[in-house]
Design a protein that fits this description.
This protein is mainly α. Helices cover 69% and strands 0% of the residues. It starts with a helix and ends with a helix.
């Protein structure tokens, strides 16, 4: 009986934690953007604007659930669900602490990359099913961006796999007991973070939305709860990339004095703050600049990192 109850409790706890954190990020991002851009953040709803998240949720839930008459209704409704489900599935293989993970797969990293790749179907289907030229262009941009940046994201992680000798995320964390992989794999870390920003479609890579060019891109025709699912999916994606960065390059749960799960949370929160800081400071790239940067700069660098890491490991033995 205990073999059934423990996994169920772990799944519920992970779901509540990541969804709660994603909701809290709505408030945190606005407060930090206000701080770094020298303006007020949310400060009217509750103390320090803490109830702003609740106000936003009430607004989303009470808006009319509208589907444009020119849209492909089944696909239009299904598309927002895909991004939320695929990102939540990715958290299943993240080891938050020793003994705290939904499932321990020996191909956990490959599973996670596969799940993250599926998110592009959500954006492309949303853009196509909306029956709007702005949405379609946003969906096409998302597909092109993902196609380019997924390639070097995967290649940037192969150095970590070579050093750890495993695709199992738990093994990768345990392999960093003596030295975090952010030191020998610094180039891989930088490439992975750039790909992570592109994966989550955050500034400077928010080309699929590009409000000044495409209204809101692939989710122009969405409102209410369906728009809210895209919104939550974006914050879940930020949390996932931050947690993955900690797992692969910063020793996962390892740290002195504090409990392992607290260390994992603090490290993840640091990289979430980095995502928000980049949004507060950098401008959006042009579409052609983004593709040139991906194919002509980041892809050769990721191949160079892979060849250099393999050569060093073979030489040292």
């Amino acid at each position: 009986m205990q073999e059934i109850i423990k996994p169920v409790i772990t799944v519920i706890a992970v779901l509540l934690a990541v969804i709660g954190l994603a909701a809290g990020l709505i408030w945190l991002e606005r407060r930090l953007l206000g701080l770094w851009q020298d303006r007020y953040g949310p400060n009217r709803v509750g103390p320090f604007g803490l109830l702003q998240v609740a106000a936003d949720m009430i607004k989303i839930f009470t808006k009319e659930d509208w589907v444009p008459p020119f849209a492909d209704k089944p696909v239009f409704v299904l598309a927002p669900c895909v991004i939320v489900v695929t990102v939540l599935m990715s958290f299943a293989v993240i080891p938050f602490a020793p003994g705290i993970a939904v499932v321990n797969l020996n191909v956990g990293l490959l599973f996670l990359l596969a799940m993250s790749s599926l998110t592009v179907y959500s954006l492309t289907l949303a853009g196509w099913a909306s029956g709007s030229k702005y949405s379609l262009l946003g969906g096409l941009r998302a597909a092109a961006q993902m196609l380019g940046y997924e390639v070097f994201m995967g290649l940037s992680l192969m150095g970590v796999v070579i050093l750890a000798g495993s695709f199992d995320l738990r093994d990768i964390v345990e392999a960093q007991e003596e030295m975090w992989f952010c030191i020998p794999q610094f180039l891989g870390l930088v490439i992975f973070l750039v790909a992570g920003f592109a994966e989550t479609r955050r500034i400077p890579f928010d080309i699929p939305e590009a409000e000044s060019e495409l209204v809101a891109g692939y989710h122009t025709e969405y409102s209410g709860m369906k728009f809210g699912m895209f919104f939550v999916g974006e914050y879940l994606g930020i949390t996932l990339i931050s947690a993955l960065t900690v797992t692969l390059f910063f020793g996962g749960w390892s740290g002195p004095v504090l409990p392992p799960v607290i260390w994992f949370f603090l490290k993840t929160l640091f990289f979430i703050g980095l995502f928000i800081l980049v949004r507060a400071t950098l401008p959006r790239l042009r579409y052609d600049q983004l593709l040139v940067f991906g194919w002509k700069v980041m892809l050769p660098l990721s191949l160079l990192n892979l060849v250099a890491t393999g050569g060093i490991v073979l030489t040292i033995g």
